[in-house]
Amino acid sequence: MKNISTLLLCFFAAINSHAQDKKKEDKLPETFIVKHVPFHENKKIKATVVPLKKTEFSISPESWTSLIVKSVANHGQFIKKGQPVIVVKTEALLESIKQKKIDLKLAKITQAEKLNAFALLKIESQLKQESIDLKLKYAREYFKKFLEIYKKLNTESSEFMLKTINNFIAYEKEELKQLKKMYEEDDITEESEEIILRRQTDYLERLNFILKSNKISHDELLKNGLPRFEKDLKREIEQLAIEQKKLQLEIPATRKSKELKIQKTKLLMKKQESDLKKLENDLPLMSFNAPHDGIIYYGNFRSHLWSKSEYERTLIPGGRPRVNAILITIISPDAIKLIAEIDEKIIGFITEKRTFYAEFSMLKSKINPIKLIKLHVAPYQKGKYLAEFSAPVNKKLLPGLNAIIRFNIFSSDAAIVIPKKQIFQNEKNENYVWKLVNKKFIQQVVTVRLLTSDSAVISRGISVGDKLPKSPKLYMTSEK
User: Fold this and answer.
1) How far apart are the C-alpha atoms of 55 and 73, rounded to whole Å?
2) Which residues is 469 bridged to in the sheet?
3) pLDDT confidence of 9, banded at 50, 70, 90?
């Protein structure tokens, strides 16, 4: 009885399990079967017609920057070799050159005057130095003689003069005494004798006055005259020494100053000569002619676009174009190419082996085979690269025209293609899909050959006949 109960329990459990499996199978999401389908993926990129041969013109003067247009060829004009492209007014430049020449002549005259003055300065300074040296030498020699000879000699001369006067006085007194004695012995004094006595007396008085005066002069000489004269001689020597020292300092400094001024004028002349040379070199740049036949374009071709608009206001009579900027480009219309922007996402498909076709709005034919000339490896913008392509020979194709370049990146009549939404990535950054195996969905790693905006071409991981959920995201949500 116990065994029968156990068997019944197992039977009902098996039935219940089968029912649950059946219920679970009934809950599986809707699937689709992987098949081979034809798949072709084409890409298109925008391009611009650019010249292969071009000559860019800019005015790059060394000095003159006041550019005023006198005449200029028109934008889009066909020009022949030798015809004037642009002419800039030169009246102000010629006047500036004339003024620079005058300034340079004046500078040369000034320099010659300074050189002559410097030569004279050498002679004058030498004479001044020699003169002050001699004066100082003579002053010192005289002072030495004064101390050794003249001071004592002046004192002795003054003393001797006093002695001589005293002797004269003594002689005259004695003579007066003898005259009086002689005349007193004669009882009768004649008138002539009185005159002689009076004259002798007057002479003696004069001698006494002279003696008195010489004593004062002698005292003054000893007290003030000689000491002051000695001080004056010392002062004169000191002043001459100062003047000598002053000249010794001033003459080299003056010479150095003159030499520096001459050097400065020389440098100024060199600069004036250089400035004049630059202006003379700039004169031929104020006009230029076409070196070859071609079409005039204003501005330059930058980032495969013409910069004409920024020059429309300056490349007119009276306009003021910028220096050192490409003002005009002459292009040869017979030699052109295509420049295209390539997004980094498709740069791997741009190879020389791939076939490219160009479309132009003015050409009837939409199939114009072209070839890749060069792919620039350095980006010109973030995520953007430039590629150069050949262009079909057609006179209607002019630089600046737009074009569309088409090319195929994948083509197959039997490819495994699934919706892009079927592709997921695991923690290892591997691509995978949810694949139905034994009534269960498993993660199947796949190799994606091509991923477009809505489809994925699979080269490995799934095969024809495999089943994938139509709504994998819904299934993943329910699994969680």
Assistant:
1) 15
2) 31
3) low
Residue 122 confidence (pLDDT) above 80: yes
> In terms of Cα–Cα distance, which of 444, 479, 465 is closest to 28?
479
The 8 Å CB, 24+ separation contacts for 374-378 are 375/342, 375/347, 375/350
* pLDDT tens readout for residues 68-103: 999 999 988 889 999 999 999 999 999 999 999 999
Entry pTM: 0.55
Q: How many CA atoms lie within 13 A of 404 on its CB side?
A: 12
**357 bridge partner residues:** 369, 406
Beta bridge partners of 479: none
Q: Which of 131-135, 146-150, 304-308 has the lowest mean pLDDT?
A: 304-308
Q: Which pLDDT score is estimated for 297?
A: 84
Among 390, 386, 400, CA closest to 355: 390
Q: Is there a contact between 321 and 67 (Cβ–Cβ < 8 Å)?
A: yes
Token pair in block for residue 21: 């499996």
Contact 352, 344 (CB under 8 A): no
- The span from the CA of 216 to the CA of 212, in Å, is 6
Give me the numbers of helices (H) and strands (E) for the chain, helices first please: 6, 23
Q: Would you tell me the crossing angle of helices 151-185 and 226-282 to the nearest 10 degrees?
A: 140
Cβ atoms within 10 A of the Cβ of 77, count? 13
Report the alpha-carbon distance of residue 431 to residue 447 in Å, rounded.
7
Q: Of 268, 274, 322, which Cα lies nearest the Cα of 299?
A: 322
| CB within 8 Å of 308: residues ≥ 6 apart | 75, 297, 298, 299
Q: Which residues pair with 419 in a beta bridge?
A: 455
What six digits make up the tokens of 294? 């071609």
Cα separation, 340 vs 251, whole angstroms: 77
Residue with tokens 């010659």: 112
Q: Is 329 exposed, middle or buried (0-12, 13-18, 19+ CB in 10 A)?
A: buried
* Tens digits of residue pLDDT in 13-60: 555 554 454 444 456 778 899 999 999 989 999 998 888 888 888 889
Locate tokens 């005449």: which residue?
A: 71
CB 75, CB 289: distance < 8 Å: no
d(CA 45, CA 369): 15
